[in-house]
Specification:
The protein is built from four helices and 15 strands. A hairpin with a 2-residue loop joins β4 and β5. α3 runs antiparallel to α4. It binds 2-amino-4-trifluoromethylsulfanyl-butyric acid (MF3) and cobalt (II) ion (CO) (2 copies). The site of 2-amino-4-trifluoromethylsulfanyl-butyric acid has 12 residues, from loops.
């Protein structure tokens, strides 16, 4: 079932999202060679709790897995998603995708951003930029009267035109009183398919983009997803609301 959110519910979701926007803005200043992903996770958990929210991923149970143990997913280099924070030390030239969710006032926010560690090479920089741009191409299609698949079509077209590949196994999703609601929001596909988008729908759009093959595999810890060819992957995500006019991003910083 797809629930349309009231203006009041959207304000509550914007509050949940602002906490995450502020967190990512702050955490960007901590990402340097030498820091561990666990240190970033501890910072993020304290930050979210200090804003009277809860980390949405901690304890999250999926169809395949027991409770996720951390606040962040800290996916480095060839990790696509769901890398558990650890003693892993970030080094110059890495990229790290930080995915984070909050629960505040009964509503969820979900966002992700890929950061460079120190100095990254030009091709890696292009991957990160194209992935972020692809998210905005998708958001731009999230308009009343468009079809659901117009989002994924815009993302795929843009990414492939630039020589990169769209991960197929993981998708965006509806979001609200649950972290993952209907509908599934694909990052690829034909245009003008699926339901018509309506004002009040809240969705998380989250392209995961690879330099090489789009194929991925799950590592032995049961969580971390990596590219099959070991090449780099980037990930950006925003929670947004479809309106009568422009789509609105709910996971922006306070200012
Ligand atoms: N990456 C997922 C999303 O953005 C959520 C991760 S849940 C976790 O929708 F438990 F794996 F962390
Ligand atoms: Co996310
Ligand atoms: Co998500």
């Amino acid at each position: 079932m797809i629930t349309l959110k009231s203006p009041h519910e959207i304000e509550l979701m914007r509050e949940a999202g602002k906490i995450l926007g502020d967190l990512l803005k702050t955490i960007g200043g901590l990402i340097k060679p030498g820091i561990t992903t666990l240190e970033l996770d501890e910072f993020a958990e304290d930050f979210i709790l200090s804003r009277n929210a809860k980390p949405a991923f901690k304890g999250y149970v999926s169809a395949f897995n027991k409770g996720y143990p951390a606040t962040l997913c800290t996916s480095v280099n060839e990790s696509v998603v769901h890398e558990i924070p650890s003693q892993r030390v970030l080094k110059d030239g890495d990229i790290i995708s930080i995915d984070v969710g909050s629960l505040y006032n009964g509503y969820y926010g979900d966002t992700a951003y890929t950061f460079p560690v120190g100095k990254i090479d030009a091709h890696t920089q292009k991957l990160v930029q194209i992935t972020q741009d692809a998210l905005y191409k998708g958001i731009n299609q999230a308009r009343k009267g468009n079809h659901l698949s117009d989002i994924g079509h815009a993302i795929q077209t843009y990414v492939e035109k630039n020589g990169f590949a769209v991960v197929r196994e993981f998708t965006g999703h509806g979001i609200g009183t649950q972290l993952h609601e209907e509908p599934v929001v694909l990052n690829f596909g034909s245009p003008h398919r699926g339901m018509k988008l309506e004002s009040g729908m809240t969705i998380a759009i989250e392209p995961m983009i690879n330099i090489g093959t789009w194929k991925v595999k799950t590592s032995s810890d049961g969580w971390k997803v990596v590219t099959r060819d070991g090449k780099l992957s980037a990930h950006f995500e925003h929670t947004i609301v479809i309106t009568d006019s422009e789509p609105q991003i709910l996971t922006l910083p306070s200012q």
